[in-house]
Structure formats: C-alpha cells, structure tokens
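Input structure tokens:
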C-alpha cells in the first residue's frame, strides 16, 4: 500500500514539473514591449562633442577675396585643420587680424608672413644699406662650383698689363661679402625662411646640379662699396675667395654686425704687384740722356776757322 502511494505521488510531481516547465518556456518567449520614453518638449538635446584629430594642424585661410592694402578682420579668415601644414603657414587668427596684405589674395589662400611683406624674396634677404648685385662667374671664379648661399667671400681683382696699366696687379676689392644666391638657388630670407625651398629630394638634387653649373652669383654688397665692385667687374678679371666658416661671419650678420664698409680703408687697396710676389725687383727706369745743364753756358773754343765746345 505504501508503494502504491509513493508511485502516485511521484507521478503527480512529475506531471506538475512538466506543466511548470512548459509554462516557463512560454513566458520567456513573450518579450514585453518597451515603452518609448518621451523627451521633454522644452529640453534641448546637446550634440556630441567633436573628436579632435591630433594628426591635423591648424592653418589660417581666407574665406573671401581680399583687395590689396585692406585690413583683415575676423570675418575674413578661418582656421582649417590639415594633415600637413604648408611651410610658413600661420596657425592662429590673432597673427593676421589687423594686418594689411600688399597684394590681392583670393579666397582659400593660406596666409604666411610673405602675404604681408612687399618685395621679392631677394629683396627680403638684405638689410637697409645693402644692395644685391649679380656677378658673372665660371667654374674658376665660382670656386670650382662649390659656392653655396650663405658663404662669405672676398672679391679679388686681377689687372693685366696694358698701356694704361704698366704692371700686372692684383688687389682686394671688397672683403667678406655674403653670397645670397648661386644661379637659381637662393638662401634664407631675413625671417629665416628659405627663399627657394625644395619640397622633395628630387627637387633638392636638381637645385644642387644647377648650383654647380651656375653662371652668376648674387652678392650682398654694402652700398658704399657698390661703385667699387662695379668698376672692378668691368676693369679686369674677378676671383671669389671663400672665407672660413669658423670666422662666424654669418652668425655676426644675424646678430646685426655688418661693418664691412666701415672697416675697409678705401684709399688703401692693399695693392700687390707681381714683381713683389715673385721676389724680383721691379724693372729699373730707362736712363735719361745727358743734356746741357741749364744755367751753365757752354764755352766755345775758336781755333782759326774751327770752333769746338769742350766736354766738361
């Protein structure tokens, strides 16, 4: 009797378990619908904050066309983020507001210091009181094609012997002048930016090849010595002697020291004759033929019909 009761209870429990499992499975499949959350009509939704790209650089560009000599305002410029900032570009609008460009600029132009400076890059490579003068050169005058912008050279003059120059001479015309450019390759402007930058390795190699074959050199000549160099270039053959970089001539220039004209004594040209270089005495002047000394009358000796003047 007990066994039958036990079996009956087990069957009831098993049936209840089956019913409960089926009921739970049915409830799990019925997902309750989510009620939408109504936003408050008067609450503004804030936009997501933009993510700054650290690889992009700020560049100031124009948003409208600008006529020459018109002062820039905040409405004329904007800052754009570029992956590669152009060389010399400005990064802040504070650097351009209130400044006046010297030429017409179109919308979309990125601004540099050159946008507000008049003149060519060559004119911005010299200081007041200096003049940029081109001198014709060849491989010998150009120091074997090794001159480069930024070098300092002494300008020497060689005069050949002719009817106006009885002795060949060599002299120092202008000392310690700065080389601004060799051929088409220019150096740095006074702002420290390259006047003719090379944007690729191929372009840099091409500039080096053109520099070695240059036929002109541009020198920064102090204005008081300009006439002397012009006369020397037309009077004889010039040579450019390169000065040592250890003299720090370029560093003195950037420090504001430019006293070449003041330190050169114009009347004293350091003239050197070839006879001095060869350690031979100069040629002696021709002997002057004897003449009757004025103020001492000659004595005439008369012998019959013959007259003679005795030799003293």
């Amino acid at each position: 009797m007990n066994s039958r009761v036990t079996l009956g209870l087990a069957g009831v429990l098993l049936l209840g378990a089956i019913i409960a499992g089926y009921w739970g499975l049915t409830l799990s499949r019925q997902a309750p619908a989510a009620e939408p959350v109504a936003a408050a009509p008067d609450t503004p939704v804030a936009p997501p904050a933009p993510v700054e790209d650290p690889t992009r650089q700020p560049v100031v560009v124009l948003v409208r066309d600008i006529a020459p000599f018109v002062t820039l305002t905040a409405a004329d410029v904007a800052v754009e983020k570029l992956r590669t900032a152009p060389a010399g570009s400005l990064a802040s609008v504070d650097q351009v507001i209130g400044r006046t460009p010297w030429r017409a600029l179109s919308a979309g132009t990125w601004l540099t210091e050159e946008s507000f400076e008049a003149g060519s890059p060559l004119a911005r490579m010299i200081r007041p009181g200096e003049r940029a003068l081109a001198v014709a050169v060849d491989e010998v005058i150009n120091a074997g094609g090794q001159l480069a912008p930024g070098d300092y050279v002494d300008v020497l003059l060689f005069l050949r012997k002719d009817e106006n120059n009885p002795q060949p001479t060599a002299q120092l015309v202008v000392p310690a002048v700065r080389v601004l450019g060799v051929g088409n390759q220019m150096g740095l402007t006074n702002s420290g930016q390259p006047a003719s930058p090379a944007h690729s390795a191929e372009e840099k190699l091409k500039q080096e090849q053109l520099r070695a074959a240059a036929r002109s050199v541009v020198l920064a000549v102090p204005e008081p010595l300009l006439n002397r160099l012009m006369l020397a270039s037309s009077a004889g053959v010039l040579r450019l002697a390169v000065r040592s970089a250890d003299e720090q001539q370029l560093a003195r220039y950037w420090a504001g020291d430019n006293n070449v004209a003041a330190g050169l004594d114009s009347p004293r040209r350091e003239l050197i004759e070839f006879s001095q270089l060869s350690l031979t005495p100069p040629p002696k002047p021709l002997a002057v033929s004897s003449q009757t000394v004025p103020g001492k009358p000659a004595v005439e000796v008369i012998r019959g019909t013959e007259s003679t003047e005795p030799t003293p």
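The two ends are 192 Å apart (CA to CA). The CA atoms of residues 173 and 231 lie 10 Å apart.
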